[in-house]
Amino acid sequence: MEKEELKTKIAELLPAATFEESGEWLNILVTPADWLSFAGQLRHDERLLFDYLFCLTCIDFKTNLTMVYHLSSTTFRHNIVIKSVLDRARPEIESVSHIWKTAEFHEREVYEMFGVDFLNHPDLRLLILPDGWEGKNPMRKDFEDPVNMIKL
Amino acid sequence: MFRETEIVKDVSSIPPFPQDAVQGGGGAGDLIINVGPQHPATHGVLHLVITLNGETIKKVEPHLGYIHRSIEKMCESLTYRQFIYVTSRMDYLSAHINNHACALCVEKGMQIEVPDRAQVIRVIMDELTRIASHELWWGAMAMDIGAFTPFFHAFREREKINEIMEETCGARLTMNYYVPGGLRADMHPDFQKKVKEFIVLFKRKIDEYDELVTGNIIFINRMKGVGMLSKEDAVSFGCSGPAARGSGVHCDIRKLYPYAVYDKVEFDEILETGCDSLARYMVRIREMKQSVRIIEQLIDHIPEGDFQAKTKAVLKLPKGEFYTRVETARGELGVYIVSEGATTPYRIKFRSPGFSNLSALDSMARGSKLGDLVAMMGTLDLVIPDIDR
Amino acid sequence: MWSLTNISTGIHDWLIQTFNPTWALIIEMVIAGIAVIGLFAVLGLVLVLMERRVAAWMQIRLGPNRVGPFGLLQSAADTVKLLVKEGMTPDGADKFLFNLAPFIAMMVAMLLMVPIAFAKDFQLWDLNIGVLYVSAVSSIMVISILMAGWASNNKYSLMGAMRSGAQIVSYELSAGLSILTIVVLTGSLNINDIIIAQADGWWIFKGHIPVIISFVIFIIAVTAETNRAPFDLAEAESELTSGFHTEYSGMKFALFFLAEYINVFIVCAIGATLFLGGWMPFHIGNWESFNHVMDYIPSSIWFFGKTFFLIFVIMWFRWTFPRLRIDQLLNLEWRYLLPISMFNLLLATAIAILGWHF
Questions:
Q1: Which CATH superfamily is domain A3-89 in?
Q2: What domains are there in chain B, each with its CATH number?
Q3: Chain B window 218-247: which residues touch A at a Cβ cutoff of 8 Å?
């Protein structure tokens, strides 16, 4: 499906979504509350079938945290980008690991690196950081580590 | 775990490994063993906590981070010219292809036209890297399942590629040959001759590989029906590269979203439908032959011209987001740059193929034997720095 | 003609003449003991070097070539290194059993030397149940491996020991059955009788297909019994790091290592004795003159030549094949080798009764 078609289709599914088309792919901004049901629709809707979550990450914009999901369909070969702005003080969003299994690992990475709390995640533990890591989340912009980090 | 400033004097002060951290384990008759971080089969510092019942695997739990260098964070303070060099250290077996992804991303943001000569040399280099990487995988995987000899045979041919790389790039592992806009230097005068010699040699040797390993009855028994990864699971786990193509998922970025000159060369995307370790093995073996085919088409037709486009001294990507994907030897590598218009990326994310492929290991391994786990890890072709980044 | 027999008889005669018979016997025993220990050490060194050379040859590299001429002293240097290394005992280990296990492994290997005929009339003890003795004593080996695995208090060691236990006990059956084929054909358990019976041709040539089948089964089974690749599950490097000897270091490890190679030598010696005629030169039926020419080659050379050929075959396996999985390993034994060798034994018995062999 082309960008425009995707846009109309998604507007039907989620009227609250806002679009942004500056980049290569269609960007859709959803609220964290809408995300879980919307994700299910993206995955299972017969004309969308976004079954391949190829990138899941988070960006720290200092004022907020933005979750970014890059989705692709192995059937129709269309791509979209979903973004969701989270509160920086208490970042919470529903886990989508039961929809796309790869999300389980990627969400664990985002959890430890950015401190985003994924609700209903089956196994939300530290993955890369050592056990018993305390302190700030390393990938946030205000993280400082005078010992191991060299500022250029 | 411990900073350089804290020297551990008393060993007993180290907290014991938390047993309750292993979920689903610890039941009666269960044996929990730690494979890694130092273990002959993990090819690096992967740490797997395996719950066993006798020889049967009940659960595999990867613990990562032993070689986590936080390349993403590091790149945030490096300029667009500098950060490419760090990425050679991610998937060190396909350094060229990592560099390619980053160079493409910057070129996309800056809208730089890369000269044809650079593009063709890049593709040749990428494919040589792919062959070298698959060679190492082939040897290491055979060693994992107990055959030591193939390792040396694979290294004999890999050495030839390394020599070619060394002449042109000056390095054998972390090449750092691609820069935004083209190549760092022109190819070596002997490049074409050496590559052609290698191709002639390699075509003969790849049949030898089949004789030595592929046709072996023990090998086939070890691989067939082991580590089943269904097509749906492969997509859901975000697998890519040979791991997914062994399950019949059409996912070759070179075909789906062609970059450089991949749309101008003829090659087949290898698909196997066995979904098991043997299928993933065969994909890689056949892929090497396709790489040879690509190189053969290009090596005599390297266009004359510049090897580097004229670019500004200081690169500043416009504000926005840029995502490029390339096909490394292990699968889809995505580079996601968020730019705020500065000389350094605001946020950079590497979607590494190994990380997603590893997430499928648990579901593949459950219920199989301990010896199979090694075969599965072998056919997933895990490169740990690529997973940890 | 020069041969080991003449030397041993010479020594024996001289001792009998010089001392009274009791003392002569005691001195002979001491000499035999020293000879076994010496052979043990020399064989270990030679076999390790041979293994490394064969491996290097198969893997297109040079192998040891720095210490001494052509690297001949490499394994001696390794031995010195292992001798001066610290023999560590882990804290949680059962110290007595942990330290005992390598010695049992070595003692078993030494005991197995007893009935082997190294040359014509050159044997430590001409046991009338030689073959039975070998299969009985060799099964003690599994105890040392289980002991090592259990006492190490290491999960890898334990798993390696368990695998090895299952493996050795299973493969002993088909090894025993294939030995029985020859016993049936010869009608004797005595190793010397078995060799004499091959004076007009080795069993592998005159025993028809059943003997060839049992020879193949014997080679497979003893490769498994000695924990050599492709059946090296007990120490499967990529799965269990080092299996049952993960925790061993220094000389204790070296004893396991030596015992492994000596066991390889012994099973190959038994194989050579049973199927390839031991020290018996290559004879063909009643070609008297040909047989006479063959007799000029000393019997010890025949014996060692055949044994080292079999050792080479086993090394060849190791550097060519991938490793089996534990369930495939046991399937191979219980589903294929055991039924085949049982049927094969019946066939051999029928041949022996009807006198169909040459």
A1: NADH:ubiquinone oxidoreductase Nqo5 subunit (3.30.460.80)
A2: 11-63 (no CATH), 71-388 (1.10.645.10)
A3: 232-233, 235-238, 240
**Looking at the partner chain, which of A23, A138, A147 has a beta carbon nearest the beta carbon of B70?**
A138
Q: Which residue has the higher pLDDT, C180 or A131?
A: C180
Q: What pLDDT digit, counting tens, does each position of A38-52 carry?
A: 888 888 877 778 888
Where exactly are the structural domains of chain A?
3-89
Residue-level pLDDT at B11: 47
Least confident of A70-79, B13-22, B76-85: B13-22
| The residue type at B24 | G
User: C69: pLDDT confidence band, cut at 50, 70 and 90?
Assistant: confident
How far apart are the C-alpha atoms of A140 and A116, rounded to whole Å?
A: 11
Q: What share of chain C has pLDDT > 90, as a percent?
A: 1
Residues of C with CB under 8 A from a CB of B: 55, 58-61, 155-156, 159, 163, 229-230, 232-233, 236-239, 241, 319-328
Interface pTM (ipTM) of the complex? 0.86
pLDDT at B14 over 70: no
* Distance in angstroms (rounded) separating the CA atoms of residues C199 and C196: 5
| Per-residue pLDDT tens over the stretch B264-300 | 888 888 888 888 888 888 888 888 888 888 888 888 8
- What's the token pair of residue B204? 């003969």
Provide mean pLDDT across the span C73-98: 83
CA–CA distance, B324 with B266 (Å, rounded to integer): 22
Contacts of C305 (CB under 8 A, 6+ apart): none
Buried b (16+ CB within 10 A) or exposed e, B302-339: beeeebbbebeeebebeeebbbbbbbbbbbbbbbbbbb
Identify whether the C-beta of residue B117 lies closer than 8 Å to the C-beta of residue B306.
yes
Contacts with A54 (C-beta within 8 Å, 6 or more apart), sequence order: A70, A71, A72, B238, B240, B325, B332, B334, B351, B356
Q: In the structure encoding, which two tokens stand for residue C64, read together?
A: 């040891």
Return the DSSP state at C202. -
Q: Give the helix ranges, DSSP H, for chain C.
A: 4-18, 21-58, 74-84, 95-111, 130-138, 141-151, 155-186, 191-196, 203-206, 208-225, 237-240, 250-275, 288-295, 299-318, 326-331, 338-354
**CB A67 within 8 Å of CB A86:** yes
Bridge partners for A85 per DSSP: A66
Pairing of strands A18-20, A26-30: antiparallel
Rounded Cα–Cα distance for residues B185 and B166 (Å): 13
Specify whether the CB–CB gap between B199 and B299 falls below 8 A.
Answer: yes
The neighbour count for residue B27, using CB atoms within 10 Å, is 9
Residue found under tokens 């094949």: C321
- CB contact under 8 Å between C233 and B369, yes or no, is no
Other C-beta atoms closer than 10 Å to the C-beta of C2 total 8
Q: Answer whether residue B306 shows pLDDT above 80.
A: yes
Alpha carbon of C95 to those of B28, C103, C231: distances in Å? 27, 13, 29
Pairwise CA distance, residues B148 & B144, whole Å: 8
Task: Taking residues C131-141, report their average pLDDT.
Answer: 86
Chain B residues close to A130, C-beta within 8 Å: 1, 65
Query: Is B146 in contact with C229 (Cβ distance < 8 A)?
Result: yes
C236:B156 CB<8 A: no
pLDDT at B1: 39
Measured in angstroms, the CA of B55 and the nearest CA of chain C are apart by 8
Residue B20 reports pLDDT greater than 50 = no
- The predicted pLDDT at position B25 comes to 46
Task: List, for residues B204-225, the tens digit of each pLDDT value.
Answer: 888 888 888 888 888 888 888 8
Task: Write down the pLDDT at residue A150.
Answer: 66
How far away is chain C from the Cα of B201, in angstroms, using its nearest Cα?
16
